[in-house]
Each structure stands twice: as C-alpha cells, then as structure tokens.
Write a structure and sequence with these properties.
The chain has about 100 residues and is mainly α. Helix 2 crosses helix 3. A two-stranded parallel ribbon has the order 1-2. The longest helix has 12 residues. The radius of gyration is 17 Å and the shape is elongated. It starts with a helix and ends in a 10-residue tail after the last strand. The chain has four helices and two strands, in the order αβαααβ.
Amino acid sequence: MTVSTSKDLAPYNIRVNAISPALIGPGFMWDRQNEMHAASGSPYYATNPEAVAKAKVDGVPLKRLGSITEVVQSVAFLLSDQSSYTTGTNLVVDGGMSSGLKC
C-alpha cells in the first residue's frame, strides 16, 4: 500500500512512507505481550514472562529494546526536509532483527 500510494501521489510532491517498529519498551504493552505469550501454552515461548522477554531481547542483534524516542526520531526524520527524496519506503526500527544478522 505504501509503494502504490507513493507512486500515485509523487506527481503532487506528496511523499508516503511507513515505519515498522519492533520490540519497543519497556512499558505496559511490552509487559502484557510477554505475559500473554508465557500463558499461551505455545511450545515457542517459555512459561515465565521474564524468560520470554529475555529470549526476545537476546534475539535482537543490538541486544536491547528500542525506545519510543527512537521511533519518534525516525518519524521526525521522514517528516523533515532531510528525507525530501524519500518516498515509498518502509523504515524498519528493529535493532537489526529483520536484517538477517545472526546473534
């Protein structure tokens, strides 16, 4: 959707981009997600929320959670003149998880 919309609006000098954050915390949503995963009975998650959280963070190449501030700074960049030639892209804010880096 981002790409097709950006192509439609580019002639009007309107840029369309997306942000895809992952593992942002700490906070209520981070804690609640780990509690729900631990209680799910899934063989992919530990039954202890703290162990679930640790396993997730251990899977991030930067070995930490992202912050809300880091996501906001990424949005601010896309809204700024510094990204005036950027359209139709998805900015992934995930500490390297989607890059294929192995931990």
